Amino acid sequence: MSRTLLYKILAIVAVMLVCIYGIIGLPKSKDELQANLKKNIRLGLDLKGGSQLVLQVQIQDAFKADADATMEGLKDYLKKANIEFSAMERNEPATLNDADKIEFMVKGVPATKAGDFRTVITDHYADRWVMTSLNPTDYRFNLKPTTALQLRKDTVTQSMNTIEKKINGLGLAEWAAHQALVIQ
């Protein structure tokens, strides 16, 4: 073995011994060694038993936002088509279980404009909403089950992606293997 390699190895060993002495000192017993290790080495959450991230995704808020956007768009289409109405109201699903029951009502559509109203709905909203005529001037709209299922899935996926970006921004790229998502 060459002398320069031997000096390098000795220098590395010396630095390691100095570091170990700085962390644990010269303990007189096993208990003192453990106390020094606990005092001088702080374990992160991953070494202390891990961490768990529990989230509650408010899916009903996504359903409300979708209905509100639909109502705003419908107001614009009705205005362009010169179709008047007296009121447009949305229900208020408060829980996750009620989220699929989102609905809104359009009241006071003149009976003479009912055909034009149905045309606007068919052209722009028939793929997402089911329209039910309550009487000649009032209509109720419910989200289609397939649309509701897709909206639920997209909301959870978008929430997971947002959280993953934030977690990875902290340098914890392994979080996905240990994640826990609780939807309540």
Give an account of the 3D structure.
The chain has 184 residues and is of the alpha+beta class. Among the domains are: 3-42; 70-148, Gyrase A, domain 2 (2-Layer Sandwich). It is 52% helix and 10% strand. It has helices at 3-24, 30-40, 45-48, 59-80, 114-124, 145-169; strands spanning 87-90, 103-107, 129-133, 139-143. It has a 4-stranded antiparallel β-sheet. The radius of gyration is 32 Å and the shape is rod-shaped. The N and C termini lie far apart (66 Å).
* Percent in helix: 40-55%
CATH top level assignment of the domain at 70-148: Alpha Beta
Q: What can be said about the biggest beta sheet?
A: 4 strands, antiparallel
Number of strands: 4
The CA-CA distance between the termini, in Å, is: 66 Å
H-E order: HHHHEEHEEH
Q: Helical region count?
A: 6
Q: Helices, strands, pairings?
A:
Layout: H1 3-24, H2 30-40, H3 45-48, H4 59-80, E1 87-90, E2 103-107, H5 114-124, E3 129-133, E4 139-143, H6 145-169
